[in-house]
Amino acid sequence: MEDHTRCSDTDDPLDSFKLPKGKGGVSILWPSKWSSKIKKLKDGNERVIAVNITATNDICLINAYMPTHTTNSQHEYMECLDIISDIIQKYENTHKIVLAGDLNGTLQTSRANKHDKILRQFTGDVNLTTGVEIENTHTFFHHAGNSSSQIDYILVQDKNLVAEYKIEDKSSANTSAHTIVKMEITCQMTNTRYSSKKNNKAKFKMLWEQIDKESYNNAIQQDINLIEQEKDVNIQLKVLMETLNKAGKRSVPTKLLQTKGPKWKASPEVLIILKSCREIYKKWQDIGKPKEHHLAIELRNEKKKLRSKQRAEYAIDRQTFYKQMIDNPNTQFFYRLINRGRSNNRTTTNCLKIDGEYICCIKSMQNSAKALYKRP
After folding, report:
1. Are 100 and 130 in contact (CB under 8 A)?
2. Residue 48's closest CA among 91, 85, 89, 92?
3. Quick check: pTM over 0.70?
4. What Gene3D superfamilies does the entry give (predicted)?
5. Which long-range contacts (CB under 8 A, 24 or more apart) does 193-199 make?
6. Which residue, 76, 135, 151, 169, is most buried by CB atoms nearer than 10 A?
7. Contact 129/156 with Cβ under 8 angstroms?
């Protein structure tokens, strides 16, 4: 999942250790495969956020957590509405506007506090409605049972955008004071897919403690004159960044953290075999991939060598992990062991062997593992 989130107390002038638990905020969430179609907007404040959605009908979705009704709260309330109005004016000519959230005011005429009057005036001015007739169903229920009201809405300018509008019944499983408001709109996301750019580059860590200082200084000195001759500060900065980057690549060794494609950390030996497999396959592909050609046989042998090397390295990795866990037991190793047990592979076991005794009952396995972990 991806999100666009801001908290209502983000800008409160309090030290970090004095901040209360999250007081509230606004958040828009969507599946990662939609990310190419959704753009986070800088507009808004700590109570108002917005995203633009590319679909069959382009949508500007605004999410708001309006101020609670208190003495003189109408000033902050109107300030938030002004921000929402600016976003609407900016995008209403190119996008369908959808406003959703806890508006802390009701459109029902049965109540008329300061927020209610301001909200009804605002929605009339910018032509926002629920799109369909809704009953006087409440969306907020005070924890102490003192009151309830309808203050959570999803509003649109174009009524044709609304396929369904529903206020869910209050559920005992929902610990929030608010119930769920849902709207189905008449548009579709097209050609959504997971980003192909994800995990497409090898990742390295620069080992600065092993830097060759002489080589680093020499690499910088070669380009220092170019920086001194340039008068434009922006170009100077660009040249300096390129020089430092180039010097670092030349004189600072790196450690492989993640290869391109596979999630496991391949050793240099495995990378060499992988490269050989790709080169052989490319040659074999260029001649039409005949099944009995010597390149096909060579590719099979190279793949066999690759799998053998991988299995050997996995075995060494397991033995190293178990030895480290036994020599220095700690919480980190314990949870790594749990995660390995949860992983989806074919090497998991249904039994544990502890002190020569086989334990196959899940509950007994858990208790035995716990007792084993607590041993001095």
Report:
1. no
2. 85
3. no
4. Endonuclease/exonuclease/phosphatase
5. 193/33, 193/36, 194/32, 194/33, 195/32, 195/35, 195/36, 199/258, 199/260, 199/261, 199/263
6. 151
7. yes
